Amino acid sequence: MSFEPLELAKDQVAIGKKSGKRPNVSAERTNWPAALIFSAPAVILLIVFLVYPTIYTIGLAFNRGRQGAFTEWVGLNNFVQLFTNDPSFINFKTFPPSGAIWNNILWIIFYTGFVLGLGLLVATLASRVRYEAVIKGIVFLPMAIAATALAVIWKFVYAPDANTGLLNAILGVIHVGPISWLGDTAFVNAALIAAGVWASVGFATVILSAALKGIPTEVLEAARTDGANERQIFFRIILPMVSLPMSVLAVTLIVNVIKLFDLIFVMTGGGPGTSSRVIAFTFYQDGLSSGQFGKAAAVALVMLIVLIPVMIFNIRRFRQAAVV
Amino acid sequence: MTQHNALAGPAIQEHPRTLAGRIVKVLNRTPIHIALAIIGLVWLAPTIGLLVTSFRPRSDIQATGWWETLSTLRFTAENYSAVLGAQGMLQAFINNLIISIPSTLLPLTIASMAAYAFSWVKFPFRDGLFLIVVALLMVPAQVAFIPVLNLFKPLGWTQGYIAIWLVHTAFALPFGIFLLRNFFITLPRDLIEAARIDGSSDIGIFRTIVVPLSVPAIAAYGIFQFLWVWNDLLMALVFVQKNTNYPMTLAIQSLLSQYGTEWHLLAAGAFLLMVVPLLVFFSLQRYFVQGLLAGSVK
């Protein structure tokens, strides 16, 4: 109760500042008890489990970090070691380069590309038939399944024995193989990316299908009346009109790749050797589970830095939306 | 003519009146039907293969591929009883429920409350704080692991369920607050102000107006969070350190490392992990897709 005059004063200041913008603001009082009750649980959890740990990990990345504590300041040494002295993280001495970072780049290019391309293909084809919902449902189904289960499904498809693995059985019909898809460094990344694409196409299909439905009928009919053929309609009208959802999707998929862990961990354990590792796998395997916490923190910081442009992109997009 | 048909091709092709016209239409579409049939097959075969395998006797699995099941037609539920019993999958299934239910309800409650504060309670720096929440959306969970483990270790929380509940809850908040706040601000201002003028408290407005009107958004977020937790491996790997508390993802991972090619066990285990998400997906597909669209495009 004793706070009330103070609150009222603040109210008036706030009203004075904002009344030009918002005519109804007088009904919206600055209500400290409500603000605290409603936001405190979330704010406390976010500070304890996200904000404070992020700051701590940034510091730890420049430390030896024994037992996860600040033991010895090492400057940039963790990063220098990672980028120059750890071929399983990044190795420029081979051509093409190899290592976890390189594999993440392969994932970004091929996973994102194929998911977007196939997603648009399925959405476009499905929109032309009556059983559209069935096809979209089938392709979307893997979205509900755990990466661990996907890993089992695809390990089974890729099984090297042609009496077990579907893919080698199919190749056997044309007298090729059997190929050890997950045991051969030449195939393992392509095989993993294919499984990842299979799991994510439905996501792209559903979103792009919604975008396709948003294209006004008049535009398409006008183009047809003017004599545009189907190819022109696709490249000149449909593609430009879905480019915004496509770019948002691409960003989401790239974020997926940076955080990718479960599928690799269960399907190959980063192997054979270290050939299918990704950044998040290195974080777990070399950093966390082997107790090298300074290195783990450095890897986590690399992940965070890669995601900062996405963070800025999201904030910009959000502010633009708020202004409009 | 609907939008759906507008995408399908020139208007002339619609509703052919003669038999010849219909045949031409079907033939024109044949490549599309073939392409979609191939797509459907590629997206169904891997899952169906594993489903069929999970019901085949071990000896059949080792002798022939699942696509030859039609020639043997022997099915058994033994694989399921083996993983549920001896392999501890029943306990893991229960652990999944113990982990997932609080890890869904807690963030649902806390995020809706915070989203209400960010949309309908006025306080200084509100919009700045909200932008920080938007930024936190992108923080990878890995960044938090070491300090949070340090925090839990002296308390022994990773030996129980508290650690996993707390981390799942905290990491679900940025997305939940973002999604729900964006929904809450679309509610009619007049309705909420009228309630305020009638003397409703914020708690009253939240409970009797905002939550009931936001059921679709809250449900979508709840389904998402539930599936996310149910399917999670990484968080459980780090924050559940007692094997009797392992969820199914960890149980399957250890099955794989112990018996890499015992497909009768792996197939049954994987399907036990999939059954709940599939049920949720089929029964609540509408909310699921709504949430997906709201979360990624808007």
Give a brief rundown of this model.
The complex is a heterodimer of chains A (324) and B (298). Helix content of chain A is 68%, strand content 0%.
Structural notes for this entry:
The complex is a heterodimer of chains A (324) and B (298). Chain A has 324 residues and is mainly alpha-helical. Chain A has a domain at 101-276: MetI-like (MetI-like fold, Orthogonal Bundle), CATH 1.10.3720. Chain A is 68% helix and 0% strand. Chain A has 14 helices and no strands. Chain B has 298 residues and is mostly helical. Chain B folds into two domains: 3-81, no CATH class; 82-296, Orthogonal Bundle (MetI-like fold), CATH 1.10.3720.10. Helix content of chain B is 75%, strand content 0%. Chain B contains 16 helices and no strands. In chain B, helix 5 (78-84) crosses helix 15. The longest helix of chain B has 36 residues, at 19-54. The chains are: A mainly alpha (324), B mainly alpha (298). The interface between A and B is large, with 117 and 115 residues.
Q: Could you name the key traits of this structure?
A:
heterodimer, A: 324 residues, mainly alpha, MetI-like fold, 14 helices, 68% helix, disordered N terminus, B: 298 residues, 2 domains, 16 helices, 75% helix
What is the β-strand count of chain B?
Answer: 0
Largest sheet of chain B: none
CATH architecture of the largest domain in chain B: Orthogonal Bundle
Strand content of chain B: under 5%
Q: What structural category arises from helix and sheet content of chain B?
A: mainly alpha
Low-confidence stretches of chain B: 1-6, 8-13
CA radius of gyration of chain A: 26 Å
DSSP strand content of chain A: under 5%
The domain count of chain B comes to: 2
**CATH homologous superfamily caption of the domain at 101-276 in chain A:** MetI-like
| Biggest beta sheet summary of chain A | none
Helix share of residues of chain A?
55-70%
What structural class do you assign from the helix and strand content of chain A? mainly alpha
Distance between the termini of chain B: 28 Å
Task: Name the poorly predicted regions of chain A.
Answer: 1-27
* The first-level CATH class name of the largest domain in chain B: Mainly Alpha
Instruction: Tell me the overall shape of chain A.
Output: globular
Largest interface: A-B, 117 and 115 residues
Number of helices of chain B: 16
Count of individual beta strands of chain A: 0
